[in-house]
Amino acid sequence: MIAVMVGGCRAAAVFAASVRWVAASRSWRSASFGVCLFVLLQLLAPAAEAAPAASQAVASVPSPAAPVLRVPEYRRVQLPNGIVLLLIPLREVPLTAFTAVVRGGALGDPAGKAGLGSLVAALLEKGAGVRDAFRFADAVADVGGSFGARAGAESITISGQFLSRDRELMIELLADALQRPRFDATEFVKLRARHVELIKAGKDSNPSGLLADYGRALLFGAHPYGSPIDGSERSLAAIDHDDVREYWAGYFGADRLTLAFAGDFDPAWIETALRRAFGRLGPARMALPVLPEPARITGRRVLLVDSPAAAQTYFWLANVGVARRYPDRAALDIVNTLYGGRFTSILNTELRVKSGLSYGARSSFVRGSVPGEFAISSFAQTENTAKALDLALETLASLHRQPLEPAMLQSARSYVLGQFPLRLETASHWSGQLADLEFFGLGRDYIEGYGPALAAVTLADTARVIAADFPPPQDLAIVLIGDAARIRDEVRRFGPLQELALAAPDFLPPSPTAAEAAR
Quick one: which H or E segment has residue 381? Predict the structure, then answer.
């Protein structure tokens, strides 16, 4: 590090690029090596970017030929009843991981009952087959395994990991959870109450965790993406025990199920075991609702969620972004990394490092079967709310106004290339990744072609995705959670203002029509 500091940024940049190239070119299997290398990169990155005078030197360093991260060889088998099996033998450690994906998720929630799919998912691990909730949990814990279920916008996912010697138990528990869940009435009541209390606790202690729920309701409206995946206080109260059973009976079926296994196993044995365990599962009985493509908004809309006496304001700025199959993924990831995807990003540098208005700011894209949101999120002390918003909007305007520099492109490219392999190290990573590819209809090239695609990104590519997919500052849905009495007047200038009490049981004010009907 002394040599790097004395020798200047050029040496640091060359060495950092070399280390990142090695990182991206290996098929990593050692988590400890990956973590150590990640720490080293974080130490080197600031040195490589610190001095403006180094811009030309960094820009002159040629990009290394991007290595290809290979997908392990695996078998894809479709059973006669429609279940897709993805079997990935990885022999390095005696573990087997699984990811089961059922199409549906929050997409299957009835009107007024958002959070039903989330309750169904949580109840899958609260007793199944011959085991009640305690015996099911004990069966997992006694062998040092893991087993968890969650709902997303378009699916319910069950994932876990067991020692390979316990593979028969693993398959038994998974088959029970998917085909013979108990849905005990007492467990349902406890879980529904817990979900409500989690929302209330978030409002009391960490409202930033609810920003996206308020934001998506404002941005997407009646579109399924506008519905809170885990429900609201009002919608959860409307769900009863029969709803849970009806959801499972209607939306769970072999034709919507993907089972991905990765780890230390014999593919022939596990295929036979899975055919035996799941071969009699029939198709789903209810059609899934159609998921339309949401339209981007024009102009601004502002929701102020009143949190009386709050010391700080949390804010979220967004518009509709891109889908998972977006063709310019590499260029988009590079630009978002530069703009708000890392600590040294433009957004975080302006709001935290230079101005001290916030402890952190970030941007991200949520990508589903149809476009989700591009969102900026941050927070500031109440008295600095308008300043922080102005600065966030100015960074977005500047992104559109000023072209990126060659040194910025190279820095972000190296960063993304170095980070990408860290997400594909373990058996659980691979089972989840391949289940994800199957769900969205993507091929191996989504992984294997990513490094070469990153290496091929040009400044013209970054300019194109900025113009096409990063919203201009005048077209945004803006949510603020803060003390309305102190910030109301100064945030009116950001757009047409709606207000909602943080204590309200929903995430969006009722429409004028609904409010009139209620009266």
Answer: strand 371-381
Determine the Cα–Cα distance for residues 107 and 250; give it in Å rounded to an integer.
13
> Exposed (0-12), middle (13-18) or buried (19+): which is 486, by Cβ within 10 Å?
middle
Q: Residues with Cβ < 8 Å from 70, sequence gap 6 or more?
A: 27, 448
pTM of the model: 0.84
Q: In whole numbers, what is the pLDDT of the chain averaged over residues?
A: 88
Residues 6+ positions from 480 with CB-CB distance below 8 Å: 302, 303, 304, 305, 313, 314, 315, 316, 385, 389, 487, 491
Residue of 23, 29, 74 whose CA lies nearest to 44:
23
pLDDT tens profile 361-395: 999 999 999 999 999 999 999 999 999 999 999 99
**Which tens digits make up the pLDDT trace of 291-321?**
999 999 999 999 999 999 999 999 999 999 9
Residue 415, burial from CB neighbour count under 10 angstroms (0-12, 13-18, 19+): buried
User: Which of 63, 72, 153 is CA-nearest to residue 106?
Assistant: 153
Helix and strand numbers, DSSP H then E, in the chain: 22, 14
Percent of the chain whose pLDDT exceeds 70: 85
As a whole number of angstroms, the distance between CA 51 and CA 47 comes to 8
d(CA 9, CA 5): 8
First to last CA, the chain: 69
Q: How confident is the model at residue 46 (pLDDT cuts 50, 70, 90)?
A: very low
Residue 484 host element (H or E)? helix 484-491
Q: In what order do the strands lie in the sheet with 371-381?
A: 361-367, 371-381, 312-320, 476-482, 300-306, 497-501
Angle, alpha carbons 361-366-371 (nearest 5°): 135
